[in-house]
Design goal:
- It is a single chain.
- The chain is α/β, with parallel strands linked by helices.
- 60% of the residues lie in helices and 10% in strands.
- It is built from 41 helices and 24 strands.
- Helix 5 (95-120) packs parallel to helix 10 (224-243) and helix 7 runs antiparallel to helix 9 (201-221).
- The radius of gyration is 37 Å and the shape is elongated.
- Keywords: ATP-binding, Membrane, Nucleotide-binding, Repeat, Transmembrane, Transmembrane helix, Transport, Vacuole.
- It is found in: Vacuole membrane.
- Residues 109-389, 725-999 form the ABC transmembrane type-1 domain.
- The chain crosses the membrane at residues 105-127, 147-165, 218-240, 246-266, 325-352, 718-739, 769-790, 867-887, 958-991.
Length: 1288
Amino acid sequence: MPPARGHEKFSPEENASFFSKVTYSWYSRVITLGYKKPLEREDLFELNESDSPYTVCPNFEKQWRKEVLRTTKGLKAPCNKKVPSKTSLHKPCLLYPLWQTFRYLLIKVGLLKVAADILAFVSPQIMKEMINLYKNHSDLHWNGYRYALALLLVVILQTVIHQLYQRFNMLTSVKIKTAVVGLIYRKALTLANCARRKYTSGEIVNLMSSDAQQLMEMAVNLNLLWSAPFQILMAIIFLWQELGPSVLAGVAVLVLVIPINAFVAAKVKCLKKSQMKTADQRVKLLNEILHGIKILKLYAWETFYQKKVMEIREHEIDVLKSSGYLATFSMLTLTCIPFLVSLATFGIYFLLDEENVLTAAKVFTSISLFNILRLPLFDLPAVISAVAQTKISLGRLEDFLNSEDLDPQNIDTNYSANHAVGFIDASFRWDENSTQILNNLNVRIPEGALVAVVGQVGSGKSSFLSAILGEMEKLEGTVQRRGSVAYVSQQAWIQNSILQENILFGSGLNKPYYERVLEACALLPDLEQLPNGDQTEIGERGVNISGGQKQRVSLARAVYSNADIYLLDDPLSAVDVHVGKHLFEKVIGPSGLLKNKTCILVTHSLASLPQTDLIIVMEAGRIADMGNYQELLSKRANFAELLQVFSTESKNEETLPIKSDSYSLKGGSQKSYTLPQNEFLGPNDSSFLDQKKAFPVKKEKVPTGSTEMSIILKYLQAFGWLWIWLSLAAYLGQNALAIGQNLWLSTWTAEVEQTNDLTEWKQLRDNKLGIYGLLGLIQGLLVCYGAYVITRGSLSASRVLHHQMLDSVLHLPLQYFETNPVGQIINRFTKDMFMVDVRFHYYLRTWLNCTLDVLGTILVITSASPLFILIVIPLGYLYFTIQRYYIASSRQIRRLAGASHAPVISHFSETLLGAPTIRAFGHEERFVRQNKDVVNENVVYFYNNVISNRWLAVRLEFLGNLMVFFAALFAVMAGSTVSSSVVGLSISYALNITQSLNFWVRKACEIETNGVSIERICEYAKMNKEAPWLTSKRPPVGWPSKGIIEFINYQARYRTDLGLALQEISFQTRSQEKVGIVGRTGAGKSTLTNCLFRILERAGGKIIIDGIDISTIGLHDLRSNLNIIPQDPVLFSGTLQSNLDPLGKHSDLELWEALELGDLKNFVQSLPKKLLHEVSEGGENLSVGQRQLVCLARALLRRTKILVLDEATASVDLETDHLIQSTIQKEFDNCTVLTIAHRLHTIVDSERVLVLNSGRIVEFDTPHNLLRQKGVFSEMVTEAGITYDTDA
């Protein structure tokens, strides 16, 4: 059942009267309210319980489980073993459980469709009888009125049944989509790593958004598979009654068209497959670009990645072009088929018997039947094509759903020993394509023990925790684990919700314990500075809090869960030294909140090791050493060697001298101070706290009011005015010729009635038939030309709008991406672009055709019965009134529905990122419920949209039915003054006007409501952009040559309504100087580097680099000449080579040199494909430390004169940190280096230290002099518990 919500408005449908139900009058209150004001969520009706995901998903999942058991007997082969051929031939099929779940609804929908189809053939028979009355002039008035009334009753009954069919059909199809989306989500939570690595996050999201949508669209058209042939058969039977065996000629034409349609369907299938594959690649790349946008901006790589996206997009456009040309061919065949059928039928009718003549009854009854035949003939190829597309989607979905799950039997939870975690001869790997990661593990961890896992980068520390969680593929041995688990991942996973919900993580609020956890995890000071305390909303991936805050929130979540076993993957590396000590003492250590819990801590900090019960030393995937601190030291083995790289055997401090200024500044002393090597000088929470206040997370804005004409004009401009005028000409011509054909038949039959001498008629017959055929042929050519022109124009619009959106997004400032969910932007590039690529031009084309149809129909009927104009005016007024009422509500419901789609995508993407954490905590079912919540919101809007469409359709069709009635009534009233041919012409046109008017209003609404997609695509163009990438002023080649940076009275703020983040910053570096930047949390360290790269623009003052004011040159000229190693090591999917050198500027030799300097050469050489080794999405198949070394190698290749280190070694062990620092000292010796302080030796090697406080410079001198001054820097050192020797 859904969770209780205060705004629920249950549907009054169940208690409505029969009349209210069939006319949907019970929904009028929403339509009226929507006309008065923009609708909101609270104004809409809830789903019926049977339609909600809370009912649909469990029923379908039950049937799916039955199917899995039926086909595989519950067995699946492991990833490293081939599935037996019998199993592979009988993998679980998605269609069978769908049928079992929804069969009663599908049968009900089918029966309604049968009734509606049968009624469609009654109207032409009534019209035939009316025409015969005029021909025979027998009892014209009484029978005429009776037939007119019968015609009205039939079309009204047809309307009621057809709208019931549409309503149940649409709701059944969305239930099918809901069920499949629920199953995909549940599968994503249980996917084994061997299967997960085959699918990127973008591909899995695409399964949910595209393939499940395709399944829904197929369900909508499912009944046409039998209904279209049924209607064709019925039409042929009735035509036989009119024209005899000659109808077989028409059937022969239809049979000849079938292989053409089959060929087109096969080609469409191939093109659809190619298009979906290309769309997957585009979305995957866009997803990575948006998640790594900071790196793209810092390295000035936007243009390169923009070209990569556009290359994929051009391939996609080529596929769409081919599809468009196939559609043009289809339009030609579809338009020509009814005409060719009628031409062949009439021609053979004359040939069979010289005495055969075409009377008005025969012609217009046949024409009405041919018109009925047109729709199924139009639908059948589309449905065949949809079947082909759905088959591809079904295959993709079944492949995913039948992928390997994590094996719960990997973990033995039922054992007699008293240890909490145990490995017995256990070996592991990630998937069948990877090498063995962990080898022959043997260890037992007692309950309540504090265990440290240490080792170098890539030694298998994080994999050790993953093996305990059951995330890895077990090759042999046993893993034992008892009790509940809490897990803190190395890269903190944060949900897009308020901070308190992130910590509670589904548990109830225990206020006293909650506050103890906040205090222990050092979050209380942060809460005071956050805008709304613990009620502050945290953005996607925690974008609006710092790295240290994310890690502490993640730790607080684990602590609050009160689990039995705690797996902590290096949580202390991303926090300040004093915060790290606080966390160890208050949470992890022997006196912390977890003192009686089993706690396994991966760490690079050696200071905490003496207080642990057990230390496990990892080396190359094996346990190299194991024991407590003293035992390992006494062995003098790997562990002691590891320590000796940095320190002497001391439990509390490891010291290193601090050098005085090597340039011997005036007054400089040569005294040596000593500080603990392994400590941090300044806070690592690098994000400026004012930034959090400045940029709260934004919800997607839902526009209100009518779609501006300027939005449609933007589409038409992108479409191209030449193509627009050519389209108008083509469609005007084809509609004029269609009317001409029918008028020609009318005059032809009138001549038959007036001609007594059939010999003369026979002489004219061939000419009449020839002209009829010529008109049809020209019409077909114009249809083909119109479709071609529309295709060319729509492709032009797709290309232009996508390029404009991509260009606008890449020019947005970084702050936009930090405050807007990526899912929201991806939604524009997927759902909204799909609307532009495939749907919008179809809506425009259909609306134009229907408009011309309606005008032509009114002209024809009015010419036959002039009194009809008196009815057209009031009925036209009612049409526009209903349309105006409906469109206001429909537009807003669709806008709300569009906005509700992004949370579904965002929640799904968020779940994919945090799946290991969710599984570790055992919260899979809670997240499944959350998914149902966001899907339910989306389906509520869909339900209200369906009902509003039915409300409109019933009223429009009723007005259309009145037009049919009055056309017949006026014909009866005219009596013998009109001929039977005129009556036949006007009534046959009137029977078509209902559908044309309905389509006309519907498509007008579709254009306006789906114009929202164009509105959303174009809105990025209106947003504030960052400065131009290139300007007319270009720096000289080789700039900067010295690396002298000068800040002059520099000021910066994050937003105009906020205070200054940097105030009166003035300092100058020397050429090739090494400067450390330190300060407390919120001091402005990262703000300073953001200003250097112009991520944040100035509010005053200026920055000069080698004599050039950086505000006068383009961003790319600036950023491409600076270098940075960022805190978060971001990699993109692709080869290792493309990650090191995406622009392809360097030779393989240079790449290998950079890898050697970055200590990665041996690792890369051990890989089968070496530089062409595939890096998975986000670099997930490399450890965090290895990713950081790749970033170092990337920086080594750039070789600019200025390098910024932004907390670059927080995620690596001490030895790797030492290696990185020594490499930087050696390789960047001739560069100016700015370092945001982290581990102490970074500052030791700095020639001067810049100390910031509240956005101001408070100290700037050598470390030696700053310690003597007893100022802020000295105070920070003392607070961190660091000692120094003034006499050294």
